[in-house]
């Protein structure tokens, strides 16, 4: 018999914010960075072909808080180039990269409604040194887990367990929401119910079905 669901663990970027793709596109256009070259560099980095000085994946090290943001910015900027072939300024690179990460109020609303119906809620985010809107988190989350603050990152099993534990839950009692398929797959492997986020309406409907609750705001 399936275990009763009692909690929601959700990603931040791409779920509680605008999608990552348009956000990065806006930054590339604003900074006049060569888009094709950026894509080639990041494919190599995500494939683990860019290591830190001590060895290991630079992106993973950044997300675990092992690599200082300024050092990551300098390393990444050195690999990129402007459309005219010029150098990319390193200082503030990540802040510029995510400057179009605007909040999606409807998703905060969904989580708030779920929490108001007794569902435990937690944030689980891989950080790139992001400036999180922490003032909003108290409204909707019982627990917050930021990768760079705990030395772990998704999809490592330990960070999923930590998020569930901080929310006072077992993994099998949790629904996990993320916009990246490999993170959702990792959560499912641990016994969580996974939702691959594509849009607010679909995620709202899937959560409503999972918890047997109407998560639409009351109309006056």
TrEMBL record:
Source organism: Nocardiopsis endophytica
Protein name: HAD family phosphatase
NCBIfam families reported for this sequence: HAD-SF-IA-v1 (TIGR01549), HAD-SF-IA-v3 (TIGR01509)
One Pfam family of this chain: Hydrolase
InterPro entries: ACAD10-like, HAD-like_sf, HAD-SF_hydro_IA, HAD_sf, PGP-like_dom2
Tree of life domain: Bacteria
